[in-house]
Fold:
Amino acid sequence: MASLGYARVSTVEQNADLQTRALKEAGCLKVYTDHGVSGTKARRAQLDKLLEHARAGDELVVWKLDRLGRNTRQLLDLIDQLESQNIHFRSLTEGIATTGSMGKAMLTVMSAFAQLERDQLAERTKAGMAAAAARGRKGGRPAVTPEAEKVRQAGQYRHAGLTPPEIAKLLGVSRATVYRYLALLAREDNPGGLSPTAITL
Structure:
């Protein structure tokens, strides 16, 4: 089994010597280092190279968990990828190793918290959509109600020269309702006031 170290610093100016020294003292034959790379990025050149060279039975070692991933879900996804290839994982600072019972227990707890985060996000999304729907909106766009559609049609029929009684018959509503629809449209077109001739027969 070969121990392969991985170190990462977020900016080019930062020095990875502390990580590199700790990894070599932990028995790593080679250390792969990404300079000026954020931990949130899915693709990291040196990490990718390490994964290409690692073989079943090898061990990926980091100085600290956040060097491998900046959030729980990303970290667990990477560890799952390693495990699927029979590559072990160890973090020096936290003392976590997938070959040990305590390390596996810790990863199980982390996985549970990651699932909780996903569930809470899903619940907040559903609650937000429900609130938006209650306000007459769906998916961020105004909801078109059946009445709003009839108001729109009433305006089109009136513009085409039909009388309110004719519009009422076409829409299946009373003449009073048609007058109300046309009044609403007139207020939208003339916010300052409704002209007495706006809905004349």
